[in-house]
From TrEMBL:
Species assigned in the record: Peloplasma aerotolerans
Cellular localisation: Cell membrane
This protein's name: ABC transporter ATP-binding protein
Residue intervals of the ABC transmembrane type-1 domain: 16-305
Classification via Pfam families: ABC_membrane, ABC_tran
Length: 581
């Protein structure tokens, strides 16, 4: 919690001003009952029927009370405005920091938190913290100030009667302690249930078509309903208990007033200068003291609740990032060629028992095409993901032009690469924006040539606004093949040294696949690393690496492998005709 509150540091002067305003307000609030007491005694003259009301005094004290109230309102408005502004700015800073941190996450850290939980943490949890900061700014000074002030003034009015307050305050604190002992542990559970609800809703919405096609709407709805019921039941339970808080407090306040009036008028009035004005003031101070203890208890209660959200947010911010830039990075040489080398690389997923890649060694020559093939789950995507350091190899070395990629800044490393993921990913915005995503020159000719090579130009031109056509969020208004081609065009427009195609041609028809690869070979002289399922996509590659259960079982050209590698032969025979073989 304290660590999260450090994000308030840039606003320390604002916070101090709020505290000063709140203290002034509390001071004015404490003056009011005293002035009321004077007004009653000196103005109305209650308790002595022989004295006429002193209208001048009533006016004087009434105006004094009005002035104090107006000032208090002004301070409250200004401090309220500042509290909202500071807490909103605090939330923005925190959200920005969380987002910045998540951006540095490797896939390992993303797997650790899960996307849904990261969304809840950066929205709901930060919102909770914003609310708490807002409330704390107001109460952290007000509550102790009012509590001490109200009790001191009560004692000054009548030490014996003010003992009643201790009974009221103890009952209040006991009542609140019971309520919060029951509810607090449930708050943590509540955040977890929100995570779960988010996860299920997200899963269901992104797989909506599959859900419909398999007529499992009811089953899915039931799963969401289950999560939502759990959250609902818990919310109802917590709110039911919390709803007892205000009425009980009202009861305690009422009983305290009653006791003061009864005991005061019966036993103490007229003794030792205890007059009706003092009794009224004492009543008002008691109310304020009870309120103050209510605020104080709420602070103690809110802090653990906020601490839960703060902990979840700080977990993200403090997550040790596995993949960091080296302290003393090597600058990218100017004349890079783009040779990629794996030297005895082994990789194990964090929670897995066995490595998915073992002792991988190969060299992908600069400017040549190296392809990876193997059965599903053989480790092709994992291998290719190690090159941009999306995952960190467990042992061995990966080099580009002889430089260990660990010795490069990640930004430099990524600047050498055009990465096309298995699932074409597009962003909301124009086609142009998507293609020129990594091209800092924003050159239209580059865009058009990239689209031509990627076989995307024809369908782009058929669209009403051509390159300005709007891509909806997640690229849902283009087909799978179009999405892949636009992703490929994006990599080409970046003009990288090394291309990484992670099964990026799978949604293309045979003809388009052929044309695209032909143009890639003719026009692009960079190093190409291609993961593919189809032999036809890679048969002309300069080198083909065959993977089986995470190890290399064959290396060579199509013809060499057909002769020497049984796994390759098996894949080829399942895909090619006898003549092609
Ligand atoms: N994030 C992950 N955490 C743990 N294990 C994983 C993770 N991703 C993949 N795996 C496991 O690693 C192995 C290799 O997966 P990978 O995706 O690299 O295979 P692939 O050859 O690319 O498969 P495909 O051709 O089906 O895409 C599989 O057994 C898979 O279950």
């Amino acid at each position: 919690m304290i660590k999260a509150l450090k994000f308030l540091k840039p606003y320390k002067w604002g916070v101090l001003l709020v505290f000063a305003l709140v203290a002034l307000r509390a001071f004015l609030d404490l003056l009011l009952p005293m002035i009321l007491g004077w007004l009653v005694n000196e103005g109305i003259g209650l308790g002595d029927a022989t004295i006429d009301p002193n209208i001048a005094k009533i006016w004087e004290y009434a105006l004094l009370m009005l002035g104090a109230t107006i000032l208090s309102i002004i301070f409250t408005i200004i401090s309220g405005y500042m509290e909202s502004k500071i807490s909103a700015a605090f939330a923005v800073d925190l959200r920005r920091a969380v987002y910045k941190k998540i951006e540095q996450f490797s896939l390992r850290e993303m797997d650790h938190f899960t996307t849904s939980s990261l969304i809840t943490r950066s929205t709901n949890d930060i919102q909770q913290l914003q609310n708490i900061v807002n409330t704390l700014l107001r109460m952290v000074i007000l509550a102790p100030f009012l509590a001490v002030g109200a009790i001191a003034f009560s004692i000054a009015q009548h030490p014996t009667l003010s003992m009643l307050l201790s009974v009221s305050i103890i009952s209040l604190v006991v009542m609140l302690a019971i309520i919060f002992t029951i509810t607090l542990p449930r708050f943590q559970l509540m955040q977890k249930l929100i995570d779960k609800l988010n996860l299920r809703t997200r899963e269901n919405l992104s797989g909506l078509r599959v859900v419909r096609a398999y007529n499992t709407q009811e089953f899915q709805a039931q799963r969401i309903d289950e999560a939502s019921q759990e959250s609902k039941n818990l919310n109802i339970f917590v709110n039911r208990i919390m709803s007892m808080m205000w009425p009980t407090m009202g009861l305690i306040m009422g009983l305290t007033s009653l006791a003061i009036v009864y005991l005061g008028s019966r036993y103490f009035i007229g003794i030792d200068g205890f007059d009706p004005g003092s009794m009224m003031a004492l009543m008002q101070y008691s109310m304020r003291a009870i309120m103050a203890f209510m605020f104080l208890t709420m602070i103690f209660i809110m802090i653990p609740r906020a601490a839960i959200s703060a902990k979840r947010v700080m977990e993200v911010l403090e997550m040790e990032i596995e993949i960091n830039d080296p302290e003393d990075p090597i600058a990218l040489p100017k004349d890079m060629k783009g040779e990629v080398e794996f030297d005895n690389v082994t990789f194990k997923y964090p929670d897995a028992h066995a490595p998915v890649l073992s002792n991988i060694s190969f060299k992908a020559a600069a400017g040549k095409t190296t392809a990876f093939i193997g059965s599903t789950g053989s480790g092709k995507s994992t291998l290719i993901n190690l090159i941009p350091r999306f995952y960190e190899r467990t042992s061995g070395t990966i080099k580009i032009d002889g430089i260990d990629i660990k010795k490069l800044r990640q930004e430099d490393l990524h600047s050498t690469m055009g990465y096309v993921p298995q699932k074409g990913i597009l962003f909301g915005g124009s086609i142009k924006g998507n293609i020129l995503f990594g091209n800092t020159d924003y050159d239209d000719n580059v865009m058009i040539e990239a689209a031509q090579i990627a076989q995307a130009e024809t369908f782009i031109q058929e669209m009403e606004d051509g390159y300005e056509h709007n891509i909806s969020q997640g690229g849902t208004n283009v087909s799978g093949g179009q999405r892949q081609r636009l992703s490929i065009a994006r990599a080409i427009a970046k003009n990288p040294l090394i291309y990484i195609f992670d099964d990026s041609f799978s949604a293309l028809d045979y003809q388009t696949d052929q044309k695209l690869r032909k143009l890639l070979d003719e026009k692009i002289k960079a190093t190409k690393l291609i993961v593919a399922q189809r032999i036809n996509t890679i048969r002309y590659a300069d080198q083909i690496i065959v993977l089986d259960q995470g190890t290399i079982v064959g290396k060579g050209t199509h013809h060499e492998l057909l002769k020497s590698c049984s796994v390759y032969q098996e894949i080829a025979s399942s895909q090619l005709s006898k003549e092609e073989m």
